[in-house]
Structure formats: C-alpha cells, structure tokens
C-alpha cells in the first residue's frame, strides 16, 4: 500500500509536465499564427521539438547516470521552465526554433526520469495498474490542457507564466520523494534493418503515424484558424482528437486480441483516411460538427501506433520487447520531424485543407501496404495481449507487464518471414 501511495507525487509531477507541454504546443502555434509567422515556421516549431525529443531519448540516460535522477530532474525542469518564459520575450523564429529543441530535449529527459521511477515502484502484480494510472493521467491532463487554451491570450505574458509555474512546481514532489532512485533508463536504440526484418508493417505504420500525427498536431491550429474559428475552438478541436483516441484505445485493443491484428490495423487506417478527408468538408458546417469530426478522427488515428507495436511484439523474440518498442518510437520521432516540415510547403498552393488531405493520403498508403502484407504471411498462432501505451519515451515500455514476461516465459522464436 505504501508503494502505491508513493505513486501519487510522481503522477502529480507527470500531470503538471504533460499539461504544460500540451498547452505549450498549441499556444505557441496560435501565437505564431497571430504574429504572422509563415506556415513553414509553424510546422518547424513542432519538427524542432521532436529533434530535441529524439536527442533527449538518446543522450539523457548518460547525464542521469552521472548526476542521479533528482539532480537531473531539477536541472532539466529548471531549463524547461526558463525556456517556457523565454518564448514570450521576443516573437522571433531565430529564438523560438532553438528553444523548441531545448524544450524537446528537456521534456524527453523529464518523462524518462518519471517513467523509470514509476517502473521502480511497479511489481509483477501492480505493473498493469501503474501503467493504467499513468495512461489515465496522460489522457486526462492533456485533454484538459487543450480544452483550456481558449481561456488565454497567446499574445499575452500570463499564459507563459502559468505554463512555467506548472513545470517548476513539478519539481516539488520529485525533490521531496523518498523513493529509492531507480536504474538508469536505457538509451533508445534504432536498428532499422532488424525492425524491418521483424515486421515491415509495424515499421511502416510507425513512420506513417509519425508523418501524419505530427502534421495535425503541429499544424492543426493553422487548419482551424484558416477555417474561420477562434482560438477556443482550436483547443476544443485538439482536445476532441485526444478524447476520441482515449475512448477507442481499449475496444480496438481488445478486438485486436481476438482477431488478426492486421485486420484491426487496416480498419483503423481506413477509418483514419476517411475521417481525415472528411474534415475539410465538415469544417465549413460549424463548430459542433468540426469538434465531433475531430473526435471521430481521433478514434481511428490514435490507436494505430499501439496496434503496430503489439503486432511487432507478436513476432519478436523473448527479451526484446523494450528494444523493439523503443526502436518503433524512434522511427515515429524521426518521421514526426519530417511531417510538419513537408506539409507547410503544400499549404501555400493548396490551402490549409491540405493538412488533412496529407493525413488521408498517408493512411491510404498504409492501407495498401497492409493489404499487401496480408498476402506475405499468415497471422501468428499466438498473440500477446494488447496494452495501450503512451508515445513518450522508451523508458515507459519497462512498465508494460509484457516486458517482465519476456524474461520469464520460454516463448518461441520469431518466424523467419516478416509480416
């Protein structure tokens, strides 16, 4: 019971960081739009964040090993808080873009530290509950943060103070924790050849989700504002996507445990394609229709990465679960750098509707590739249970109950022919 109670301060720190970071992504995009930044700069703000995030996943573990978890958390939270305030000093892309790299690096490091601690508090019996608590914290805080965007003026200083306070206050429960410091989180590794051999479909889906998700997260505010809506609608639209995805995670996951997981992946990809292509048409009807359509899009778009990871692990060798998922996450991150960089080049000639047309095209390619992969290998005789996982850092996969099982069950070798 004491171990469960000790989760509360860490989950509180997680909630503060997630809410501040989720709000920051949208507030910065809105401020950039109202300041007159080009669509390319708005997209690059998200791309540069993921550049920093990838760097954090790769290099933060070495820093944590040298100074310890508490000192590392203190350093990264202080830098992230200062960076949040620095955005409001000058509306200058030459300042904002490097700051986005700093923010991404710090947030990856902070998430990694918290996830390592939560894993330390998990036992085989409580691992699933700890992960569920973390996932609920993730969905709840990010949704509320997005929904509250309309309460603030992105051009004013107070919203940056609020976000900075949230990051700074996250230091308190971590600094006062009496939990033993966990092992240093593993460095994220990416072995493209091995991942492709294991499952081309999972690798391709990770890339496709990165290309599409980064486009609507980074440029969604451009789409909504150019459709004629106020900043409050932007936040509600983004929150609706998250809420739709949260609702869909468990039913799609349970369905994928009963059927060939590739069929569920295809269904989600088709749903994502159709709803993405309908969004530009629905946007002209009204705010309510736009928000409902956003939630419908989230239902099909957000579960895809988790389904792909589960499919890859159906074919992975015992003991490689964390490495496989960490590699897929890094593939997602690399693609997330490219999406907001490429799509703004299309907005000029085709308008902001091209954002979701791009998403629809990416999903169409995934659907075609998925059907092709169905012809290459039969479904596995045994599937691992689906577990909804956040796309934060590779350290989060240590909390998954399946990562512990890898070392305990004999398992069977992965099939030679990739799926």
From TrEMBL:
This is MFS transporter. GO terms for cellular component: plasma membrane. Pfam families: MFS_1. The lineage of its organism: Bacteria, Pseudomonadati, Pseudomonadota, Alphaproteobacteria, Parvularculales. One of its GO terms (molecular function) is transmembrane transporter activity. The chain crosses the membrane at residues 39-60, 72-90, 155-177, 198-220, 232-252, 264-283, 289-310, 322-343, 355-374. It comes from Parvularcula marina. Residues 198-419 form the Major facilitator superfamily (MFS) profile domain. Signal peptide: none annotated. The keyword Membrane applies. Keywords: Membrane, Transmembrane, Transmembrane helix. It comes from the Bacteria. Residues 383-419 are annotated as: Disordered. InterPro entries: MFS (IPR011701), MFS_dom (IPR020846), MFS_trans_sf (IPR036259), MFS_YcaD-like (IPR047200).
